[in-house]
Amino acid sequence: MSAGARRRAIRGGRWLLPAVLIAVLIGLWQLAASTGAIADALNIKPFLVPSPAEVADSLWQNRSLLAENAWVTLREIVIGFAIALLAGLAFAVLLHLFETLRRAFYPLVVASQTIPIVVVAPILVVWFGFGNGPTLAVIALICFFPITVNALDGLRSVDPSATKMMRTLDASRWQTFRWVEAPSALPYVFSGAKIAVAVAVIGAVFGEQVSSGEGLGRLILQDGYHYEVARQFASVFVLSAMAISLFGLLALAERRVVTWR
Amino acid sequence: MRQDTKMPTQAREFAAAAASPASPSPGAAISIRGAGHAYGELRTLEGLDLEVPAHGVLGLVGPSGCGKSTLLELVCGLRDPLDGTIEAGGERRAPERLRRCAYMPQRDLLLPWLSALDNAALALRNRGASRARARREAGELFERFGLTGFERTPPAQLSGGMRQRVAFLRTLVAGKPVLLLDEPFASLDAITRGEMQQWLAGALGADPRTVVLVSHDIEEALYLSDQVAVLSPRPGRVLATLRAPAPRAPDRDAAVTDPEFVAARERAMTALREGAR
After folding, report:
1. CB atoms < 10 A from the CB of A20, how many?
2. Does A169 contact B73 at a Cβ distance shorter than 8 Å?
3. Alpha helices in chain B, H assignment, sequence order
4. Facing A168 at nearest CB: one of B76, B106, B127
5. Interface of A with B in 6-35 (CB under 8 A)
């Protein structure tokens, strides 16, 4: 076997195992659903436990409805995430530049995480009204924390001797930020953004469900009322595909931007 | 060969003042009088008196933790002494000293996100030069430093010796009359270190500056300096100031085996041992 072929085989092997596992799980699910084993065990009607084949069929039959709702959800996630990214980075830079602000705000930022978003969401509905406004607010709120905290950690991770060196090289405060602190913080910012985008999907679903907006979260809730379980599974499938793609996009951007790691 | 064209106007004036024998060159010398420093309760330096003439090289040796690096930070104006005065490049106030001194830290601290050339050109960019001009000016020195062809290389792909040369180049390009070097070659292997010492002696010969060189290696300090100050364990005090055998021989291996050099090294060792007691 040539070195290239071996390398390809190894790389293939990294995906082979999870792929086999997924195939086996889907197979088991198909078997359990089509024989009615799960429905019997749960003592419910068999049509409430769709098989993977039925989910795939529902995915295809409802493709335009799912796409419409997925578009709404995706837009909410992107906008909410973007708001959190801008606000989080600006806040982190501010806390980094002003030690007093950091000491005042940092404990508050951490403490705010002990208030579950479930409690805050109904208030947001009151403030922003029904529709997609509260969902945006929920997404922005839960994305804000990981982005801010990671960016601040990154800015503070700078080697103090590098800062001193920059001062002897006549750097202004801004130049030290531009050449040393901001690039040092970048990998941290990406870590925070990747965490944020994952929780953003959860936030979107939850936000839509409390605020009666549109989107996949709302669709999943409605389908529950009408026992459209196959379509619920289809929505979940679309949601996770969306989350994985967004995460992958950020990982890709990170590899393009942070070339020195 | 002076590189005056590569210095900013101010540094050029200082270098000119230093080069002129008529003026007593207040601009380029270092004068430390009764300087002391403490971190809180911990005294790090006490009653230091040191003088470095213009274009002189002062070596500082002493046990670990005796405040050598702190002394460099004091001289270049990153800190102020607790007592006594420090004058560098004719300036007493810390912000002014900072403008006269360039500091090369122990680790090269090259920024991994910039190319070798952009690292070297940092000081020029900081002073407002365009990227193109900063690169051109720093790039002219790359050949002299044996770095041709590595302008666009990221620091991670350079050898240890090359990284140190880029770091020194960055310090030199800043165009300051005073250079403070904190164990510049401590991280290198013995052979590379020897080569780099000889190279630095040559570089300073071609482009003289007033230098304070911290080293834990007596041989390195004696080879590169005109005078070597031996410091005591904390709080650091000057135990002895030794004249290094002059002039610096071009070949390092020949220089360090010279009987006069060996005798100077013995005197420095004796001073260090007595200080440790």
Report:
1. 10
2. no
3. 9-19, 68-75, 94-100, 116-120, 122-126, 131-144, 160-173, 190-206, 218-224, 252-257, 259-276
4. B76
5. none
| Cα B248 to Cα B256: distance, rounded to the nearest angstrom | 10
> What's at B52, amino acid-wise?
V
pLDDT tens digit sequence for B197-247: 888 888 888 888 899 999 888 888 888 888 999 888 888 888 888 888 765
**How many A×B Cβ pairs under 8 Å?**
55
Taking CB atoms and an 8 Å cutoff, what residues of chain B touch A183? 111, 113
State yes or no: cis peptide before A122, omega within 30 of 0.
Answer: no
Tell me the CA distances in angstroms from A94 to A107, A147, A149, A161, A164, one per residue in order. Answer: 15, 14, 12, 22, 21
- Residues forming a β-bridge with B38: B43
**Is B197:B220 a contact under the CB 8 Å cutoff?**
yes
Residues whose CB is less than 8 angstroms from the CB of residue A137 and which lie 6 or more positions away in sequence, other chains included: A80, A124, A127, A128, A207
- What distance in Å separates residue B108's CA from the closest CA in chain A? 9
Q: Which long-range contacts (CB under 8 A, 24 or more apart) does B239-243 make?
A: B239/B271, B239/B272, B239/B274, B239/B275, B240/B267, B240/B268, B240/B271, B241/B50, B242/B267, B242/B268, B242/B271
d(CA A164, CA A41): 68
Q: What angle is formed at CA B15 by the lines to CA B88 and CA A175, rounded to 5 degrees?
A: 65
**Whether the predicted interface score ipTM is above 0.85:** no
Residue type for B120, please? A
What is the DSSP secondary-structure string of A195-210? HHHHHHHHHHHHHHHH
Q: What is the mean pLDDT for each group of 10 consecutive residues in chain A (261 residues)? A: 58 82 93 87 87 93 95 95 97 94 91 86 86 90 94 93 90 94 95 94 92 88 92 95 95 93 80
Neighbour-count burial for B11-23, b at 16+ CB within 10 Å, e otherwise: bbebbebbeeeee
Question: What residue in A sits closest to B178 (Cα-Cα)?
Answer: A168
> Which residue in the block uniquely carries the two structure tokens 């103090």?
A160
CA distance B75 to A109: 41
Identify any residues that bridge with B51 across adjacent strands, giving them in sequence order: B31
State how far the Cα of A183 lies from the Cα of A155, in Å rounded to an integer.
Answer: 9
Please state, in angstroms and rounded to a whole number, the distance separating the CA atoms of residues B156 and B146: 18
Interface of A with B in 130-189 (CB under 8 A): 159, 161-162, 164-172, 175, 179-180, 183
